[in-house]
Write a structure and sequence with these properties.
This protein has about 200 residues and is mainly β. Helix content is about 15%, strand content about 65%. It has helices at about 1-25, 180-185; strands at about 25-35, 40, 45, 50-60, 65-80, 85-105, 105-110, 110-135, 145-160, 165-175, 190-200. It has an eight-stranded antiparallel beta barrel with strand order 1-4-5-6-8-9-10-11. Strands 2-3 form a two-stranded antiparallel ribbon. The relative contact order is 0.19.
């Protein structure tokens, strides 16, 4: 009898877990903004300010998910030389990320879930930089310098799912670099804040 009760309890637990996973699993697609990415080049430091972000993800269950995003960025920095003219440059590029996510989506009410999470993954960042004399784009150097790199990324955030299948995601993310990457990359390893709104299918 005890074995039968144990088997029934185990079967019920498996069915309940499957129902929860099925209820929560699915794709996500959203748009948002990232703020705070800094660059350093030619002795100058620039901040990209707010930049647009497109993201997609898939929730396997209430614990595990996978995320991807694409962000375009740009920045410019100038410094005044001894003769009163400005010299500097600008930078344009793309940040493509893929990461694994782990947390737990707590049910707040019918259709409302909130998930604190952490994520780890990688970013491929590439772009071009060019220098200016005189501080305007009317006098660029003739050559463009390209850059690219692959970096470890980490993030911590919270995502709210609503009964109308709209979600809001707020996170802090960071590029993690080794000493060689810090010395050679135009991208700085400072933290950024990101906000996205999207639809959960």
């Amino acid at each position: 009898m005890k074995q039968q009760l144990l088997a029934v309890a185990l079967f019920t637990s498996i069915i309940s877990s499957a129902a929860v996973a099925k209820d929560y699993s699915g794709f996500r697609l959203g748009v948002g903004a990232v703020s705070g990415q800094e660059f350093t080049f030619d002795g100058n430091t620039a901040n990209s300010g707010n930049r647009a972000k497109i993201e997609a993800g898939y929730d396997f269950n209430r614990v595990f998910a996978i995320n991807g995003s694409v962000t375009a960025f740009s920045g410019a920095a100038y410094s005044e030389s001894s003769d009163g003219t400005n010299a500097g440059g600008d930078i344009r590029g793309r940040d493509v990320r893929l990461e694994a996510e782990m947390g737990y989506a707590f049910n707040l009410a019918k259709g409302w879930d909130i998930k604190p999470y952490v994520a780890v993954g990688g970013a491929f960042i590439n772009g071009t930089k060019r220098g200016f004399i005189g501080g305007t784009e009317s006098a660029p150097h003739p050559e463009l310098t390209s850059f690219k790199g692959t970096y470890l990324t980490t993030a911590a955030g919270v995502r709210l799912n609503t009964p109308v299948d709209v979600y809001v995601d707020l996170r802090v993310q960071k590029i993690n670099m080794n000493d060689q990457q810090k010395a050679n990359s135009v991208i700085k390893d400072n933290s950024q804040a990101a906000l996205a709104v999207g639809i959960k299918f």
